[in-house]
Amino acid sequence: MSKSKLVTLSLLGGNLNQGFPVVTALLSHQDQSFKITGSLPGVPELVKLYTKWQILYEAVHQRKRNNQRIKMYQQDINNVSINDFDSVCKELQSTLNTWLKCESFQNIERQLRTLLSQDDEIKVIIETDVILLHRLPWHLWNFFDHYPFAELALSNHEYGTPRVSRTSSSAKVRILAVLGSNCNINIDEDRSLLQKLKNAQITFIVNPTRIELDELLWNQDWDILFFAGHSDSNDDIGKIYINPCESLTVIQLKSALSKAIERGLKLAIFNSCDGMGLAKSLADLNIPQIIVMRERVPDLVAQKFLENFLFAFEEGKSLYLAMREARAKLQGLENDYPCASWLPVIYQNPTTVPTTWQELCGAGTIKTSKTFKIAHLSKTVASTLVVTASVIGLRYLGVFEKPELQTFDQMLVLRPKEELESKVIIIEVTEEYIQSVQRKNLGLKSISDSTLAQLINKLQKHQPQVIGVDIYRDFADPIDKLNPIQLNTELSKNNVITVCKGKDSKYDPQGIKPPNTPLERQGFTDAVEDIDGVVRRQILMMPQEASSPCQTNVSLALQLASRYLFSKGINFSVHEDYIQFGDKIFKRLKPGRSGAYQRVNNLGGIQITINYNDTDYKRIPLEAVLNNQLNQDVLKDKIVIIGVTANSISDYWSTPYSSIRGALEKTPGVFIQAQLVNQLVDAVLNKRPIFRVLPYWGDILWICGWSGGASLIVWRLHSHMQKAGAIVGTIIVLYGICTITLYQGLWLPFIPSVFGIVASGTAVSLKQQKISE
Question: How far apart are CA 480 and CA 483, in angstroms?
Answer without folding.
Answer: 6
